[in-house]
Amino acid sequence: MSRNSLRTFAAGILLATSILAGLYFFQDKEEIPPVVTDEDVKEYLSTRDDIVLIEKEEYEELVQFKEKANEKPVEEEQVQESVEEKVITKYTLEIQSGMNSLEIARLLESVGIITDATQLNNYILEQNLAGKIQIGSYQLTSDMTPQQIADIITK
């Protein structure tokens, strides 16, 4: 930097600082109320249409009602899970020439043999089994793990 540009830069900083200081010290400052009272809060909340004011006892009753309502679906979910666990899907997989591991995994996911196609595909790729997939028909069930499925289709 040359001497003149350095002086100009310094003068600009000095001018900007002076303007900001003048605004800070001579600007009217709004006073913030020191304490917000309960009445102020109630008045504010009563003007809002999306907020409802209720008493503490009523709130506690609603919370208990919500907890009771949430307990019932959990029991139903557990019953449904136990029923779903007993259902085993059988499928005959036909691997044709040109099918890759992702296509096979998505097909098995669509018929309900596996729940996550990416999990099977990632296992096949991580174990370097993609090139070992054999063309043919394979009997698979939904209780098999991705590892078991990969072992069967790569024999």
Secondary structure elements and pairings:
Layout: H1 3-26, H2 38-47, H3 56-86, E1 90-95, H4 101-110, H5 117-126, E2 136-141, H6 146-153
Antiparallel strand pairs: 1-2
Helix pairs in contact: 4-5, 5-6
Question: Helix-strand pattern, N to C?
Answer: HHHEHHEH
In whole angstroms, the N-to-C terminal distance is 74 Å
What is the subunit organization of this protein? single chain
Helical fraction equals 55-70%
What's the CATH H-level superfamily name of the largest domain?
Endolytic murein transglycosylase
Whole-number radius of gyration?
A: 35 Å
What's the CATH topology name of the largest domain? Dna Ligase, domain 1
Estimated structural class: mainly alpha
Describe the model:
The mean pLDDT is 85. The protein is built from six helices and two strands; from the N terminus they run αααβααβα. The protein is mainly alpha-helical and 155 residues long. The protein has two domains: 38-83; 88-153, Dna Ligase, domain 1. Strands 1-2 form a two-stranded antiparallel ribbon. The longest helix has 31 residues, at 56-86.
Task: Produce a short descriptive summary.
With 155 residues, the chain is mostly helical. It has helices at 3-26, 38-47, 56-86, 101-110, 117-126, 146-153; strands spanning 90-95, 136-141. It is flat and about 85 Å long.
